[in-house]
Amino acid sequence: MIKEEHDLPVMGASQGPAPMATTVINIQTETSVPDHIVWSLFNTVYMNWCCLGFVAFSYSVKSRDRKMVGDLIGARTYASTAKCLNIWALVLGIILTLIFIILFFTGALVFSINTFHTLRQQRGYR
């Protein structure tokens, strides 16, 4: 591999009477606005209690559309709403799923106990 070295003049005070001209370049970095579309899609498919996942998904799509147009403030607004809806959808989904599981197993337990008592009583009448 060939390496080339170049001597660069050292920047310093200007050598002549002419004033030094400066140039300022403003480079805007592309601001990343999260649109939470994957999280919203997950909540739409798996945790769609009260349709909050679907509403969050629609706000995520709106946020992505605003970002593509260049409206970062609108994209942040829609993304913030989508994030809030995703949090609520996830929390309600977990809570309601746990309640459903508890009620299901409690009902199964009560059913099995009642069946056991019914069978035990029927044996006594024979």
Commentary on this structure:
The protein is mainly α. 63% of the residues lie in helices and 0% in strands. It is built from three helices and no strands. α1 runs antiparallel to α2, α1 packs parallel to α3 and α2 runs antiparallel to α3. The chain is rod-shaped. The N and C termini lie far apart (100 Å).
Give a brief description.
With 126 residues, this protein is an all-alpha fold. The protein has helices at residues 37-45, 52-69, 72-124.
Helix content: 55-70%
- β content, as a range? under 5%
The number of distinct β-strands equals 0
The sequence of SSEs as H and E is HHH
**Average pLDDT, to the nearest integer?**
84
Radius of gyration from CA coordinates: 33 Å
Question: What oligomeric arrangement do these chains adopt?
Answer: single chain
Distance between the termini: 100 Å
Show unreliable segments. none
Overall geometry comes to rod-shaped
Q: How many separate helices? A: 3
Sheet having the most strands: none
> Structural class, please?
mainly alpha
Secondary-structure map with pairings?
Blueprint: H1 37-45, H2 52-69, H3 72-124
Helix pairs in contact: 1-2, 1-3, 2-3
Keywords:
about 130 residues; mainly alpha; 3 helices; about 65% helix; CD225/Dispanin_fam; transmembrane; IFITM_antiviral_protein
